[in-house]
Specification:
Elements (H helix, E strand, L loop, with lengths): L5 H8 L8 H7 L24 H14 L5 H12 L4 H9 L2 H6 L4 H10 L5 H8 L4 H9 L2 H7 L17 E2 L5 E2 L1 H11 L20 H6 L2 H5 L9 H15 L8 H4 L1
Amino acid sequence: MARYSSAMCRLKDLFRAVLAAAILAVALIGFVPPASAAGSAAPRFEAQTMGDAHVDQAARLYRTILVREADATGARYWGGLLADGYAVERIAQLMLETPEYIARASGDHILDAYQGALGRQPQEAGYNFWAQFENPTAVIIAISDSAEHQQLTDTEPPPERTPRAHPLGYVDTGNGVFVPPILLEIRWCESRDDYTAANTRSSARGAYQFLTGSWAAYGHAARYGVGQAHLATPAQQDEAALLTWQESGTRPWNASRHCWG
């Protein structure tokens, strides 16, 4: 299988999975914190309704996280990804990792989201409500998609999620398992794509060179009924690599970073 360039892999690695927050985000969407007192400050943005629920959701994230209007091109790009099934949590996480956000963040994601989206401080009850949730990204999305923010910006409500057979940007390993491209690079670096590979100096086995202890610790031994990775099918090894990456990113393969990184 042809190798993907390291530059492409580094780009795709930015999209590594965040903790699943879909259920929480959907549950929180539409929650309206207690109304602020009369005479609260007017919103600092001009409404820029773009006539599409996905685009409007992306534009609200710009206001909430980056505290600025989205240009039409950027909002439509991210809105198109949302329409194609790309998770709003991932888009939000990418914005939260930008130097632009990091430079202005106060360290309190609830206060920052209120200021960015609603242009005001939260009331105590509203703040305490959001503070009980452990996933900052889900909270930020929920505030961004709140009815109050929709009304302030004259934007469409968040759309129904569009299901995908696999996440946007994932590629087939050749065994019917879709993974982020970085895992193909790791697979090649670790074993030259050899699913039967066995390291003679350690217990590393299989295409992704799982150590026997790691294979068990991540639950793969119990999941697939084999004690070492090379005894699993290629599809099972691919799935195991994906599950490991979703839990720990590329950290388990740091020893070969000089090759794939």
